[in-house]
Design a protein that fits this description.
Residues 6-66 form the HTH tetR-type domain. One of its GO terms (molecular function) is transcription cis-regulatory region binding. InterPro entries: BetI_C, Homeodomain-like_sf, HTH-type_TetR-like_transc_reg, HTH_TetR, Tet_transcr_reg_TetR-rel_C_sf. The chain is mainly α. The protein folds into 2 domains: 1-49, Arc Repressor Mutant, subunit A (Orthogonal Bundle), CATH 1.10.10; 60-200, Tetracycline Repressor, domain 2 (Orthogonal Bundle), CATH 1.10.357.10. The chain is built from 10 helices and no strands. The chain has helices at 2-23, 30-37, 41-47, 51-71, 79-89, 95-110, 115-141, 146-149, 155-177, 181-200. Mean pLDDT is 88; it is low at 145-150.
Length: 213
């Protein structure tokens, strides 16, 4: 019974995602989600007592889905390859990720009206920031040039660089979401590689600045 309930809640949440993509968060109602899921309004209300509860669960589910996928990705072999693969996974480069990103963007905009959603958004951002720090460390540790990876940088510099990478990935995702899937898939990796080469992989001093010359 518990498994059936979980499956039913996920089905309703996925119907809510589709409703958001089509109509925005404002178009979410028990009736609209029930119609999208092919169930009755009573079924939706059985799983979720309120619209707010349904929205919170759906936002949590999409965050968990992305995090599970990232956690399952390999973290062995050349660091520049697996760190790049993880970063690309965060970009809307195929239909599924474009759908997820569109839904998450709508949730993020709506989070200001719901403290629980706002808290989930903050917690997700904090986990992403730690992921970016981990990826930066991995790329630096395996850098081809000794001066890039062997000199320690301060926590403050590392946090600043993670914040910049976070902003770049978020901004790139926003840009790519406005393109067609094929165009995004072709352009996204190129732009990401350009940023990594110039801002992460380039030789730096211990304080995080590039040497002159």
């Amino acid at each position: 019974m518990e498994r059936a309930t979980g499956s039913g809640r996920r089905r309703v949440a996925e119907a809510l995602w589709a409703t958001i993509v089509r109509e925005g968060v404002g178009g979410v109602s028990v009736r609209a989600v029930a119609a999208e899921a092919g169930v009755t309004g009573g079924t939706v209300q059985y799983y979720f007592r309120t619209r707010a509860e349904m929205l919170r669960y759906a936002m949590e589910l999409i965050a968990e889905r992305v995090e599970r996928r990232l956690s399952a990705m390999p973290r062995s072999g050349p660091a520049r390859e697996w760190t790049r693969a993880i970063l690309l996974e965060l970009l809307p480069l195929d239909a599924e990720r474009h759908h997820e990103f569109s839904v998450w963007l709508a949730f993020s905009a709506y989070a200001g009206t719901d403290p629980a959603l706002a808290d989930l958004k903050r917690r997700t951002a904090a986990r992403q920031r730690e992921l970016y720090r981990h990826l930066i460390r991995a790329r630096r540790a395996s850098a081809e040039h000794p001066e890039t990876g062997s000199r320690a940088i301060s926590d403050a510099v590392e946090e600043a660089e993670a914040a910049i990478l976070h902003a770049v990935v978020d901004g790139l995702a926003l840009h790519l979401a406005d393109l067609g899937i094929d165009e995004a898939a072709a352009l996204g990796p190129h732009l990401l590689d350009h940023h990594l080469a110039r801002s992460i992989d380039a030789p730096r001093t211990p304080e995080g600045f590039r040497p002159e010359g």
